[in-house]
Amino acid sequence: MSISRRRFAQLLGAGAAAAVVRPALSFAEAATGAFPPATAASEMVRLSANENPYGPSPKALRAMSAAYDRACRYPDESADALAGSLARLHGVGREQILLGDGSSEILKLCADEFSGPLPKEKGKTAGGRLVLADPTFEAILYHATMNHAAIEKVPLTASYGHDLPKMMAAAEKGLIYVCNPNNPTASTTPKKELRDFIEHAPNDSIILVDEAYYHYADSPDYESVIPLVKDHVNLIVTRTFSKIYGMAGLRCGYAVAQGNTIERLRERQSWDSSNVMALVAAAASLEDPEQVAKNRRLNNETRAFTTNQLAKIGYPSIASQANFIMFDAKRPVVPLIASLKQKKVQVGRLFRALPNHLRLTIGTRAEMETFLKAFQEVIG
Ligand code: PMP
User: Looking at ligand 1, which atom is closest to the CA of residue 103?
Assistant: First the structure.
């Protein structure tokens, strides 16, 4: 650290160097629990992107401060260390982990490998096939559409789970995307249904289970499917450090699958796509189980407060297993989103399958109070 500071001071002059060093001071403040809310920089209360308002673990912040000197090196060693920790955590081999620049990168790799044209068909305009729920997180839909894939959207069940029998019927080779808990509905798909689906899905289709919100789910009817990877070459599970670990801006996610499936994805990936800061912060976060417990507790408390307040005024929410909720706003959501924005509250976007439903990220208690006030003013 001190060498870097001296070098910067020589190169840039003391004033500029002070500005460069300043982030380290705020890291220290953050490590003592004084992390500024994510909205401090602007007046806008941001409840639109399912971010974690409490920030990264103090251990992650300290690890990043200590890693400044490594910024001039390629990230291989930090990537190996994180892949090793994740392999131990999940009880799999290191070759079964693929790190990504956020789990978004992994979703794109999956769309390209499994819903794009087959290698022997390259040059044709027709792509492969993607089966997904409606509504669900659309990143993979976007990439598959760019690949000219045939898209099969299967509406969620009445209890907002994935309709797995219908998805199975629609699956012919290609990629089946299961988001569990599901964005935007925050609902889960019952564990037995998902397990049976994975057992019986045709081997020539790939099942991608996105567990971005895994840590927030505490229903006895929910489970991770990572333990099923060992028996299913066609199963890929993705996780992210953007949610419970509070690292959305750092960009780190990963996939767990069998080694040859991971290899197919790795061949498509840019070299060294994860940066050193994200890697060391992620590895340090895994050493801080208290952060997960604390964030889950704060989310549960603030989510219960928000859903109770909304229910009291006649807006019950879909039961949430995530750090966001969705509720029927009883009016088209697009003008509602715009009106809330005018009151400096940013909420989730339109999901066309549920045009009257609002998706709302659970922020801090103060942020949710601001939302509730603005919402009541807007609906009159
Ligand atoms: N999957 C789901 C279900 C998400 O909601 C998100 C982000 N909102 C992602 C993946 C992408 O997360 P990231 O790229 O930050 O890891």
Answer: 16
Residue 34 burial (C-beta neighbours within 10 Å; 0-12, 13-18, 19+): exposed
Phi, psi angle pair for 153, to nearest 5°: -100, 130
Angle between helices 333-342 and 365-379 (to 10 degrees): 120
- Taking the C-alpha atoms of 275, 77, 99 and 297 in order, what is their torsion angle to the nearest 10 degrees? -80
Q: Tell me, what's the pLDDT at 127?
A: 64
Atom 1 of ligand 1, residue of closest alpha carbon = 212
Atom of ligand 1 nearest to the CA of 182: 3
Residue type, 207: I
Report d(CA 216, CA 45) in Å as an integer: 22
Q: Residues with Cβ < 8 Å from 27, sequence gap 6 or more?
A: 61, 62, 64, 65
pLDDT at 174: 87
The string of pLDDT tens digits covering residues 168-219 is: 999 877 899 999 999 999 999 999 999 999 999 988 899 999 999 999 999 9
Tokens encoding 38: 């994510």
Query: Measured between alpha carbons, how far is 331 from 126 in angstroms, rounded to an integer?
Result: 39
Of 11-20, 115-124, 353-362, the range with the highest mean pLDDT is: 353-362
User: What whole-number distance in Å separates Cα of residue 98 and Cα of residue 377?
Assistant: 47
Average pLDDT, the chain: 89
Any ligand 1 atom below 6 A from CB of 361 = no
